[in-house]
Amino acid sequence: MAHTTxxxxxxxxxxxxxxxxxxxxxxxPRHSASSVSSATAPGGLVIENVSKTFDPRRGKVLDGVSLxxxxxxxxxxxxxxxxxxxxxxxxxxxxxxxDEGRILLDGEDITRLPPQARPVNTVFQNFALFxxxxxxxxxIFGLKAKKTLNAKSLATVAETIRALELSGLEKVFPDQLxxxxxxxxxxxxxxxxxxxxxxxxxxMSHLDDYLKSKVGQDLLELQRRLKTIFVMVTxxxxxxxxxxxxxxxxxxxxxxxxxxxxxxxxxxxxxxxxEFMGKANIFSAKRSQADPRHAELPFMTxxxxxxxxxxxxxxxxxxxxxxxxxxxxxxxLVTLTATVEQARYRGYNVELLCSLRNSFRxxxxxxxxSRLQVLTPNHAREWAPGEEVTLYLKPSELVTLESQGDRPxxxxxxxxxxxxxxxxxxxx
Length: 428
Fold this sequence. Notes:
single chain; 28% strand; alpha+beta; CATH 2.40.50.140; Rossmann fold; 5-stranded antiparallel β-sheet
């Protein structure tokens, strides 16, 4: 069934959406929400040094997690399976409670509040629609359970149905809806409860690529319209980068990097983050003994312009940093000769897989060739396997991921990478 992008131009403002009927909280000491001084607690959603263990033999599922999710933001939490994403989502929702740490919402401590007392709603991965209820009764289920179904909330329901383009589907049952329509019903059921935070558990995992694009656009427009905090939990970096304005990557129960999507993608702070974000151009480098300004990679030597702060490192070359035409500013440019192995056309971009001959320095087991991914918007020509191309790279575009060795004498203080991010060669 065709999916139509939500349009809000003529839709009145929706009241900002609280939790539908939820399971009773585990037995815990009574703990009411306490106000925290605005001078010490920022607005938005704050996760402060939170840890959680289910089985002591398997260690902590979450280990000292701290996050600040700003008001009115669309936040994406990424990570591989088993990293603790869903556990953190359940802690925010109140379906689990942390062993250590606390959770603040707009300065209020909600760590021990039961789910039904939190202004937080969750749209689950499988949407969790009731198959025996039609669309309308699914949407009002939480309001009925809380006995808050009145003239005011019914007006909110009507506005939400119209905003999510569900008009005319009120009497339809879930098994008669498309995936995108089911998701909008689940969203409507959450939003009529006026949450301050909407949690989205893998919201696009069941959708095909076409619907993902449409639903992602709908979610982004909806978040901007309502100015509610959206927190999306996913393992799909493309889904998250499409809609979020802030992201964090969780690995083995810890936050390894939080940043804006563009910076997190282009300036990862570790090899794990780089690989998780789909970066393939990661190489070992060492500082030249002859000139400490030079970084020696298997296939090239790059002049950083100042002494390098390490002896050995893992470095990243972003695929879009490799140019097929020399830039206007060619000072210090590294020129590489490569052979095209594959050309993959990916919508607006072309991805080239190229091979380069390595420089042998007598190391045992040294490989003859390295491979580079190159991303170019050039659709003006066909790229043939076996074709020789010239690649241009500015040394300042190299990103240090992980390094070892002391800073050279007299080189000054170590550079500040900022927000846990990596240092570039040019900043050393």
